[in-house]
Write a structure and sequence with these properties.
The protein is mainly alpha-helical and 401 residues long. Helix 6 crosses helix 7 and helix 8 (194-224) packs antiparallel against helix 9. The protein is elongated and about 90 Å long. The chain has a 4-stranded mixed β-sheet with strand order 2-1-3-4, sandwiched between helices. The protein is 66% helix and 6% strand. Helix 3 (70-81) links the parallel strand 1 and strand 2.
Amino acid sequence: MEKNLTYIGQWLRDTFSIFVNELKLVFSDSGVMLIFCFAGLVYPILYNYIYHDGVVDEMPVAVVDLSQGSYSRRYLREFDATRECAIAYDCVSMAEAEKLMAEQKVHGIVYIPADFDEKLARMEQATLSTYADMSTFLYYKNMTMASNLVMLDEVHQIQAEHYAAAGYTGQDATQLIEPVQYDTFLRYNPTISFTMFFVYMALFMILQQVMFYGSTTLAGTLREEHRSFARLTDNLSGFGMGRVVLGRGAAYFLIFMVLGVYGALLVPHLFHLPQHCYWWEMLILLTFFVADIIYFSFFWSTFITKRETVLVLLLFLTPMAVFLTGFTWPASNFPPFWKAVSYLFPSTFGCRAFMNLSNAGTLEAIAPELIALSVQIVIYYILTSAAVYLENRVIRADQAR
């Protein structure tokens, strides 16, 4: 029993010693502190400030109405009444409208052909075209939403007119036009704000990227100076490699739980982002996610031998990690290869969990993501411990020569 207590006591003392040493390394490296402090503290504020509104109202649009009929005029009147778009110019040709878009006076064009009203009067399919300025996704979203919503309303009105001409009125006409009535209400994002899609992803992505690039920068610096955290075990008493991983991890866990509370709780509160969960539920998610990004970063930092390598990884991995969260493309439509690659990143599950928890407000809603994060924690902890052990063996073999 006394031997076991001695073992545990030495193990804890070694772990604490590694914890303190790692904090000293972090706070003595100006580059790492710049990454942690600037990116970890400024980026959440910056992204929320830039995308604070998340919507574009009354987007100026040019109209080319070659039909000049009652149907086209009604369509354009209702289109102009939408929150998303406002008709700023009535053009006589597409060339004039394209010139206005090139001059950035409008961000969309509605083109109605000459036979639009004629085809509708003959109960034939009529078409119109919309063009959006793709310099930002919000312009495309506004054009698509406004035109589609007005088109659906126009279809119902045209059907009602045709049924009324055939003798169907009132409830009979309503049942023929819309046999099953429905009402659409987007509970978690009623304004379809871009902020709700982007900022939730960005806040957790910042945590992962700051941890990854900060820890790999430090690892690259140590190896450039022919040092390594794996050398710490030379001065310890051989009580296992797990203490090296846990001691270093505890140092970053302390730092990133503070950054996580700042980014996931304080910043959304400052910018009035909806969060329907309790603060302690967010802390549970942060505990899983922070532990995951720490061991994820530790393992991949094993392959970093130079400080400059981090800059290459920054350009290469960040867009990939953002894409694989499902922010820009539905995860269900990922090819099998990219779906498998997405499982390597904690952000794949962490960003989705953060968005779901903020909107749905229950831990049950993020149970699959918490399970995935737990699996990643175990796997990356084992891989990191093995990497530390192997690096230590290599260092000792080089010293023995």
